[in-house]
Structures are given as structure tokens and as C-alpha cells.
Amino acid sequence: MSEFNIQLKNCNSIENGSIKIIENSLNIKYAINGTGKSTSSKAIEYAVNDKNNATSDLLKLKPFKYRNESDTNNPKVIGIETISSIAVFNEDYVNQIVLQSNDVLKNSFDIFINNDDYKNGMSEINELIIEISKTFDENQGIEIMLNDLNELLQSFGNAKGLSKSSIFFKGVGKGNLVENIPEELVVYKDFIQNEKNITWLKWQMSGKDYLDISSCCPFCTSSDIEEKKETILTVEKKYDSKLIEHLNKVIQTVSKLKAYFTQDTYDNIISISKNVDGLKKEEENFLLEIKEQVNTLIDKLINIKRLGFQSLKDFDKVDTIIKDLKINIEYINHLNTETTSQKINKINDSLESILQKSGQLQGKVRLQKIRIEETIKTYKDEINDFLKYAGYNYSVNIEEDVSKQTYSMKLKHNDFIDSNIDNARNHLSYGEKNAFALILFMYDVLKNNQQLIILDDPISSFDKNKKFAIIEKLFRGDNSFKNKTVLMLTHDFEPIVDIILHHSDIFNVVKPNAYFLENIDGILSEKSISKNDIKTFLEIAQENILSLDEQINKLIYLRRLNEVTNNKGLVYQLLSNIFHKREVPKYQSSTEDRDMTETEINDASEEIKNSINEPFVYSVCFQNINDNNELIRLYEKTTNNYEKLQIYRVLNNNNHNNRTIRKFINETFHIENDYIYQLNPCVYQTVPNYIIKECDKDIEIIKQTSN
Fold first, then answer.
1. Taking a C-beta distance cutoff of 8 angstroms, is the pair 471, 464 a contact?
2. In the record, which residues are listed under signal peptide (predicted)?
């Protein structure tokens, strides 16, 4: 089985480190907080992306102590050279990709629907109707005609009749003052009827503001301004440059369509546009008739152009639809010209060719529709089953957006199933958002087929039942990370218990392996975790009691063993006296507080001797535990942090002067309280090194005081 051996250098708190990732397997890296899990994730991600995109994001991880060095001690990642693509689940993915305002998952159409089968189905359908696209592509005049007709239609406005706010009405509704120049302004005829008349009108009207500055004309500087002033001012009274602009637009649009209108129709439109007094009722009706026929032809052309799966999928008989799309120009009499007919005939011929294949087309459309429905049902059922069994009162649906010819995923609450949840991010809890995001991330990755998948502490925030539901969804079933290369970084031990110990039979399909990550003074290393390494605290305590070579260390585990099993008998009482450094052992309970009898001490000592498999004498042990030098010797000899912590507690009854550190020492690292199953602290350093460093400082002070 091939693997990536990745070396990390100068990445945040990691001076030097190594991580092994086995391909096509689930690689679980378990570590306590502060080890460098997220740094490892970012370093690998940045290095791969820098390699692929010629960027330098890896420099973001340069340790602060080296920030003044521009060219030395830069972050470096070795071993990713053959990794071509990477996907990382982290907080950024949750914030940027999932739970968009109008789609639960960004690009959900591409992820869930637009697969190879969908693309092939669409290609087969498009191949059967290719004559239409060819006709439009090879006859650009059809597209030009469609655009020009649409321009004319827009000039009529959106109202049912002829809107008074439309360009056409504004241009000709009050008469054509370009053709019908008022007598007093005939002198300006050449300007008014020039193609640049709008520009001239704006210039002329702005010049009037200067009439009273001088006796000279502001336009020609002649001195007879008083004689011309009235004529100059009349231009603004009679003309509106915006209305003239609308008129010019109408004339220009109609002129472009001359070849498509019958001669009579064209002449009548031009005649109407030159009216002196505006529109008569019969002229308006004539224009509305033209508008209706233009609209009919445009609708036909657009529907023909859009012919495809979307327009056919909801009909039982494709041939009926195609027949209805054919254009009978005889009934569009205003546009019944040779030029129009030539273009329409080509389109009708294309439709006739498609009609000959309508049976085959019908089958392909029906098959594609079934395929989409089955795809939607598969993904919807998978996700909703997960949500149901994980205890989330939500469901999803993949819905079609007809206007955009696409699909998007919508979120619903099961108590209000008839309505979609908009802005789901505002309604979901932190855990709910992460659960959705993690499952949707899986589908996203499966679609894009990235080579390496990194899950950065993905499930630590979930309840136990939700954790297992998520793990099972991610790593079991056809749509899962099975046979994918996955690196899962976590400070949560439960996934290891589930995947490696309890349910190895059902998770063996992802070929899981587990490692414990440890960071000591910037050196990151990993240690394998096998099924046999996952034990109950009872097993760990019994194992260490027999294997350790120092009696005090054995007694530490024996006392914990009695405490965890709630065995508060004589053995527990005597051991408590040892660790409380009492020369005369006491028996303390909720009902009594007295000295232990000689018989009780002897009986307890005998039991302890049998448990630790070596002689035990209370007085000797008491002397040792009251000897700081002996405890310091044990502290320095011990190689695992958990035992160091317990010896420190015995040596320094007051514990650390910092309340946070003191809480860690007294409570947080009672490993037997963390999980039913755990790792042996003699083998795996589950107590952070920075805690031990704090203890080391106090030990040095005690040593100096003792000397």
C-alpha cells in the first residue's frame, strides 16, 4: 500500500515533524489540543496549493521568532510532490461554501445532478434536435431579425395596449415635429432634420442661458440678438430633445425591419410616424395589431430556439409540441414577405427533420427525466436518513429552478415542511451547521474527486450519538469516503474507539489506521495506535501496577483503581493516608474519623502487597513519600507525563500557584474520567508538555530549598 511521508519544518509551533498518510485509507491522527493539528492541516493544504497555483501561502505559517528573517527558516513541506489536489474541511469551508442564502450548498446542481449520466443524457437529446441550433448558427439573419423584432416590441412598451410611457408613443404620439416643423422655426430645418438633430437641440437649448449676457448672439456673435431672441426661445417651447430621440429610435428600428414588413404595412408605419397631430384611434389599433403579430413571431422563435429537455420534459407527446412550434407565416400577414418566409421556411424544415425522430426524442427525454428524479431521490433520501437518525429535525429537497434551468438544494424544518428555510445559517445551531457542512463536504469532494481529503477536528463538538451517525455516513456506503485518502485530525478519542475497537468489522472498508501525535519542544512525532492499545482505565491500571518498577508509581495506579471502582475499603483508606503523608493512618468516612487499627493496617498492607506483587510496609513507604529527594528522584526518572503529574501532586500538596494550571493538575488530567476507553499514559503522552514544564519549574525550586 503506497503512502505519503510528509515532513514539516518551521510551521508555527512545529520546528520539525513527520506525518505518514497511507493512500486510499482513513488516517486518524489523535492529539491533545496545542499539538499542531490545524497547523499540519494548513501546512499540507498551503503547500499543495502553492505548488499547483504558484502562490506562497505557506509563508503565513512562519514561526513568529523567525519573522525578522526574510530568507531563512521559512516554512517547508516535503512529500506532497505527487499530491495533485486537496480538499480541507475546516471553519472556512463551513463559512464560505455551505448554507448560502438561496442554496444549502454552493453549486449543488453541479455536485448532485450534473454527473456524467446527466451530461450524456443531455448530449443525446441535443444531438436529436441539433438541426435547430445549426439553423440559427448557419443563418445569422434569423438572429438579427429576432433582435430587431424584439427591439420594436420593446418600443411599444409592456402594457397590454400602446403604453403612453412607451418609446413609440413618446416618439409619434403627439405628432412628428421633425417632418412637420413649425413655420416660425423653418429657418432651423437643416438642423432639425439632420441625423445629429438631438445633439444640436441640446446645444441650442443650453445656449439660451447666455442670451442676456451681451447684445451679441451667443451662437453667431452677430449684433442683432434682439431680433432673433424670440425665435431662439421658441425652439425649447416646441421641441423636447428626449422626445426627438425617441422618434429617431422608432424610425431607425422600423427602417431595419423594412424587408420583413409587407410594403403596405411598412408604408403605413412610416406614414403614422410622420403625422402632424399624433395618433388617431384607427392608427393605434393598427399598431397594436402589428405589436400582437410581432409578439407572436418572437414567442415562436424563442420557444424554437429553446427547444430541448427543459421545454419537453413535462409533455407526454413530443411530436405535438414540435408541430405546434411550426410557424404559419400566412397568419402573420404584416410580416408575410419573401425575406421573412425564407427564414421561417428554414426553421420549419428543421422542425420537420426533428419531427421524424420524435419517437426517439420522446424516449430520451423520458429517460433523462427518470434519471434526474432517481438521482434527486437517492441523494435526498441519503441526507434525510442521516438527519433523521442523527436526531436533527430538518430535511432537504433538491428543487428545480425553472427560470435558471438548474437545481438547488433547499432546507426545510420538519415542523413546517411546506416552506423552505431562507438564510438557514441564521436558524441552525453551531453543531447543526457543522453536521450539515460535513456531510455536504463529503458529496462535494466525491463529485470533484480530490486526491487528498483533510478533516480538521470535524466532530469534536457533537453528542455521542451524532458522532457515530456522522462517522458512519462519512465512511460507509456507496456515497462515502471509502477508497479515498483521508487524513482526519482530532482531539476526540471516541472516533478511534468506534472505528478501531468496537466497530472495526464495519469500518474495515476504509482501511483505517490511527496514530497519536506528540509535540515536544517543536518536534512533532507520531505513534501507532492499534486495537490492543485501546483499553479501559481498569485494564491500564492493572497493567501498570504489575509492570512498573517503582513502588510509589504502582501505588498511584492502585489508589486510582480503587477510586474508580468505588472501592473505599481498607486498601483505599491506607493508600490515601500515604498520599496525604500521615504518619498515623486514619480511617475517614462520612460517619467516622479515627485512627486505623493495627489489624486494619496489616490487612490492607497484605492486600496491597498481593496487588503490586512486591513487599509493602506502610512505615517504609511513609518515609519515602515524605522524602522530597526521593520524590524528586522519582519525578526525574519517570518518563511519562501522567506519572510526573501525580508525583508532583504528592510532592507539592499546595500545587501550582496559578489557578488555571492548578485546575489542570487536579482535575483535567484525571485520565480515567475522560473516556471509558483510553490510551495508556505510560506509552502515550496524553498530558501536555507545557503543564510538565510548569511542574519542572516548581521542582527546581523545591530542589534548591532542600539543598
1. no
2. none
Angle between helices 689-706 and 641-651 (to 10 degrees): 40
Give the strand pairing for 677-678 and 535-536.
antiparallel
- Helical H segments across 276-357, by residue range: 281-305, 309-312, 318-325, 338-355
The amino acid present at 546, given as its one-letter code, is: L
Compute the radius of gyration of the chain from its Cα atoms.
43
Compute the C-alpha angle 652/655/661, nearest 5°. 145
Buried b (16+ CB within 10 A) or exposed e, 423-436: ebeeebeeebbbbb
Best CA proximity match to 232, nearest among 178, 299, 180, 184: 184
- Mean pLDDT value of segment 430-442: 86
Q: Express each pLDDT in 551-603 by its tens digit.
A: 999 999 999 899 888 898 999 999 999 988 999 999 998 888 999 999 999 99
Q: Is 11 helix (H, G, I), strand (E, B) or coil?
A: strand
Query: Is pLDDT of 87 > 90?
Result: yes
Confidence bin at 478 (pLDDT 50/70/90): confident
518 φ/ψ angles, rounded to the nearest 5 degrees:
-135, 135
- Identify the residue with better confidence: 575 or 288: 575
Question: Could you give the angle at which helices 338-355 and 318-325 cross, rounded to 10 degrees?
Answer: 170
With beta carbons less than 8 A apart as the criterion, state whether 3 and 20 touch: yes
Residue type, 615: P
**How confident is the model over 501-505, as a mean pLDDT?**
91
Closest by CA position to 461, among listed 470, 453, 452? 470
Between the alpha carbon of residue 15 and those of residues 4, 72, 114, the distances in Å are 20, 13, 45
User: CA–CA separation, 278 vs 283, rounded Å?
Assistant: 10
| 519 or 182, greater pLDDT | 519
In Å, what is the CA distance from 326 to each residue of 153, 235, 431, 647? 21, 52, 56, 93
Is the Cβ–Cβ distance between 699 and 644 less than 8 Å?
Answer: no
Contact call for residues 417 and 425 (beta carbons, < 8 A): no
Q: Which three cell numbers stand for residue 448?
A: 470533484
Domains of the chain, first to last:
1-99+428-533 (3.40.50.300), 180-238 (no CATH), 534-706 (no CATH)
Residue 668 has pLDDT above 50, yes or no: no
In 129-279, alpha helices (H): 130-138, 140-155, 167-172, 189-192, 197-207, 225-238, 241-256, 263-273
Residue 642 pLDDT: 86
Is the model's pLDDT at 269 over the cut of 70?
A: yes
- E strand or H helix at 706, and its extent? helix 689-706
The amino acid at residue 465 is: N
Farthest-apart Cα atoms in the chain, separation? 139
Q: Which residues contact 503 (CB under 8 A, 6 or more apart)?
A: none
Backbone phi, then psi, for 430, in 5-degree steps?
Answer: -60, -45
- CA neighbor of 684 nearest in space, from 626, 650, 642, 655: 642
Across the range 299-314, mean pLDDT stands at 92
Predicted pLDDT at 378: 92
What does DSSP assign to residue 33?
Answer: T
CA distance 630 to 614: 19
C-alpha pair distances (Å), 694 with each of 188, 414, 645, 701? 98, 52, 10, 11
Task: State pTM to two decimals.
Answer: 0.78
**Tell me, what's the pLDDT at 600?**
95
Burial class for 343, CB neighbours closer than 10 Å (0-12, 13-18, 19+)? buried
- Checking if the pLDDT of 170 tops 60, the result is no
CB-count exposure of residue 269 (10 Å: 0-12, 13-18, 19+): buried
Looking at residue 532, its pLDDT comes to 95
- Three cell numbers written together for 460: 469534536
With the CA atoms of 140, 144, 145 and 147 taken in that order, what torsion angle do they form, in degrees rounded to the nearest 10?
140
Given a cut of 80, whether residue 119 has pLDDT beyond it is yes
Please name the residues in contact with 594: beta carbons below 8 A apart, sequence gap of 6 or more.
Answer: 586, 587
